[in-house]
Amino acid sequence: MKPFPDTTKVRQDLHELLQESDPQRPLDSLETVVVLSYLDKNRLDVGADAVERPQTIEGWVAWVARHSPDS
Q1: Residues 64/10, Cβ–Cβ less than 8 Å
Q2: Which has more confidence, 18 or 44?
Q3: 64-69 long-range contacts, Cβ below 8 Å, gap at least 24?
Q4: Do residues 18 and 26 touch, judged by C-beta distance below 8 A?
Q5: b/e map of 55-68 (b: 16 or more CB within 10 Å)?
Q6: Whether the predicted pLDDT of 13 surpasses 70
Q7: What is the dihedral of CA 3, 6, 10, 13, to 10 degrees?
Q8: Segment 25-70, tens digit of pLDDT
Q9: What's the CA gap between 62 and 39, in Å, rounded?
Q10: Considering only CA atoms, which of 31, 2, 58, 25 is closest in space to residue 66?
């Protein structure tokens, strides 16, 4: 299993994928699907935490920091 990227890389990737410069702007449903696909591709399953999904890029970066296999 490949290691999950560090949070700096996650932040950069999400900014690029979503073409979003404001990390605090609430994401719409399509953007959330993009984030979930990115996490899945990088082998980090949202799973049961889906109820408590973050609403912003920074929220997702913090979520990754708490839930990555290396944390």
Answers
A1: yes
A2: 18
A3: 64/4, 64/7, 64/10, 64/39, 65/7, 68/4, 68/44, 69/1, 69/3, 69/4, 69/44
A4: no
A5: ebbbbbbebbeeeb
A6: yes
A7: -80
A8: 999 999 999 999 999 998 888 876 566 789 999 999 999 888 876 6
A9: 13
A10: 58
Measure CA 39 to chain center. 6
Q: Quote the tokens at residue 68.
A: 């990555």
> Helix-strand-coil percent breakdown of the chain, rounded to 5?
60, 0, 40
Instruction: Determine the average pLDDT of the residues in 4-22.
Output: 91
Q: What pTM was computed for the model?
A: 0.84
